[in-house]
Amino acid sequence: MTSLANQPQTLLEQARAHNARTRRNQMISTVVRYGILAIVGFIMLYPLLWLVGASFKTNAEIFASPSFIPENPTLEGYQRGWDTSTRWNFGHFFLNTLWIIIPKTIGTAISATLVAYGFARFEFPFKKILFATVIATLLLPNVVTRIPQYLLFRDLGWLDTYLPLWVPSALAGDAFFVFMLIQFLRAIPRDMEEAARVDGANTIQTLVFIVIPMLAPAIISVCLFQFMWTMNDFLGPLIYISSVEKYPVSLALRLSLDVTEAFQWNQVLAMSALTLAPSLIVFFVAQRYFIEGISTGGVKG
């Protein structure tokens, strides 16, 4: 009788011990998992941390220690790097970069949306052939088209202007963005568009007032991609722009490496950190829309 009376208590103690072990194992698993993620994340971020830290070092201290924490922080790199070796300061090259990015981003968003809407919602002759051509240009390496594009823009008299950087994007020349928006549109039901047509809305009104608000996350993703890619573009401006006055920051950074044999690396790193800042700020500000646009664009309804 005594053993039968103690049996429920024994089972309760075993259940409590089992739950305690389970919680302990889960806690250990969580600590190990997040510890590994933290270590891997730190390793991936270390070059960026070192870049920012080294920008506050002297040129001699940069090569004296691999640590990203400066022993004697200084703003010398930022002060001298901002002045540059030309008669223009670095702010002038930032303005040139914005003068390239803003029209290019706006043109990309408008043209890619129009082309994607046409492919996703309308039937017209040779639609499949034209869509296959768009996808083919997406698979074509940019290097293959560099020389034909250069010869075309030279014959048009567009060299040493921003037109070779603007016009292709304004004409939906970036097939990746067209394809991305088409995939997003395919996941959007047509019910609201058909209701707008019944109410008397034409194609443009339906696009502007119905489709674009639903496309907003994808369009923001397109703008973010274009902003960051243009900000990092070195080869395009190098090929088409020859006047130092019109250089973007990507080419202005290169000037610091060409003017002297003894590179002032603290100045180069300081200006590189400033160059990274706009892309990082824009990304984190619009991060929610960016992730939503990428994740939703991969789901077909």
Low-pLDDT residue spans: none
Structural class label: mainly alpha
CATH architecture of the largest domain, by name, is Orthogonal Bundle
| CATH fold node name of the largest domain | MetI-like fold
Order of SSEs: HHHHHHHHHHHHHH
Note the overall shape. Answer: flat
Would you report the number of β strands? 0
- Span between termini: 65 Å
Domain count = 2
Q: CATH class of the largest domain, anyone? A: Mainly Alpha
Number of helical stretches of at least 4 residues: 14
Q: What is the CATH superfamily classification of the largest domain?
A: MetI-like
In terms of quaternary structure, the protein is single chain
Mean pLDDT over the full residue set = 85
Radius of gyration: 28 Å
Largest sheet: none
The percent range for helix content is over 70%
Strand content: under 5%
Defining traits:
MetI-like fold; mainly alpha; 14 helices; 301 residues; transport
Would you mind describing this structure in some detail?
By secondary structure, this protein is mostly helical. It folds into two domains: 2-51; 89-297, MetI-like fold. The chain is built from 14 helices and no strands. The chain has helices spanning 2-54, 59-62, 76-83, 90-121, 127-139, 142-155, 163-170, 175-186, 191-198, 203-232, 235-240, 249-258, 265-285, 287-297. Helix 3 packs across helix 13, helix 4 (90-121) runs parallel beside helix 7 and helix 4 (90-121) packs antiparallel against helix 10 (203-232). The longest helix is centred in the first third of the chain and has 53 residues, at 2-54. The radius of gyration is 28 Å and the shape is flat. 23% of the residues are buried.
